[in-house]
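Throughout our pipeline, every protein is held as a single compact record rather than as scattered files. The record that follows is passed on verbatim for readers who wish to inspect the format.
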Amino acid sequence: MKFLRILLVLAVLAYAGWLAWPFLSPFFEGAGLDTAATRAGAEAQVGLDLPVIALWVGAVVLYLVAAGLLGSGNPRAAVAYFLGFIADAVLRLAIDRGGFGSGSDMGGKVDPNSPMAQSTITEGGPAAAPGGLGADLGVDPTWLVLGALVLLGILIVVVSRARRRKRVPGQLSV
């Protein structure tokens, strides 16, 4: 079980890193703080507004907290993970549907000329899905990712739940 817990911690950390990559990549390229902030701000300005940025940062922080709690064996890791998952799911579904007022009308259809649609086409996002992973299976990749994240969450619940041990009277607890 300890090996599975370490593997899950690494998986959650890897996913949080991948999710935060648009904000972290300028720092790895050697850009200064002001340049990195400008580039990260440009990433966030491509059709996204404040609620989306808050969800994005919140999901990353909650995933990192969940990884830390899971690494220490704390059963609250599942709560932190699923809160991060909720923020991530809302974010993914809002971006996939063109929500939060980013280039969409009230019907949820994205204008192909909006900055959000252009960014997802160039980055291989939901607009580029016909040739991607979901095209082979006939499923939208967003749902595949969310399903994989739910399975990861179930494993975290299994690994992080508190186990009751029987003690013989007079035995010290460990």
Q: What stands out?
A: The chain has a mean pLDDT of 74. The first helix runs from residue 2 to 28.
